[in-house]
Design goal:
Blueprint lengths: L6 E4 L5 E9 L13 E9 L10 E8 L4 E2 L5 E2 L5 E4 L18 E2 L1 H5 L3 H6 L2 E2 L1
Parallel strand pairs: 1-7, 8-9
Antiparallel strand pairs: 1-2, 2-3, 3-4, 4-7, 5-6
């Protein structure tokens, strides 16, 4: 469950490390984001001389969350951290990630929601 002002790890190679969520996309009443939801975040810390700088405002998709997530078969999946992947601002393909590498496990719900490129570049899909 990720909400406004939540700190999240950025799990790709854009250079950003930590981001602060300040908007959950999906309607005016939507307060929390789960796996597969879009968020708008501000970069809090980043590596020097990379694609993304500190204070950049970006759109990202939630790929891991600490709160147990219920799957359609009734099982639950839970991760150790809250993590996102930054998306490119491409009107032709809104599901394309900005980076070319993804770190850590990715749930299969991300691939089912249309983010095939994230699923294929991830080291492990659980």
């Amino acid at each position: 469950m990720i909400q406004d002002r939540s700190l999240v790890l950025i799990t790709d190679n854009t250079g950003a490390k930590i981001g602060r969520v300040f908007k959950v996309l999906g309607g005016s009443k939507k307060r929390t984001a789960e796996i597969g939801d879009l968020v708008v975040l501000s970069v809090q810390s980043a590596e020097p001389r990379k694609m993304v700088k500190k204070k950049d405002v970006l759109t990202a998709v939630v790929v891991r969350q600490r709160k147990p997530f219920r799957r359609t078969d009734g099982s639950y999946i839970r991760f150790d951290d809250n993590a996102v992947v930054i998306l490119a601002k491409n009107p032709k393909d809104p599901f394309e990630p900005k980076a070319n590498r993804i770190f850590g496990p990715i749930p299969r719900e991300i691939v089912e929601r249309g983010y095939q490129k994230i699923g294929s570049s991830a080291p492990e899909v659980v």
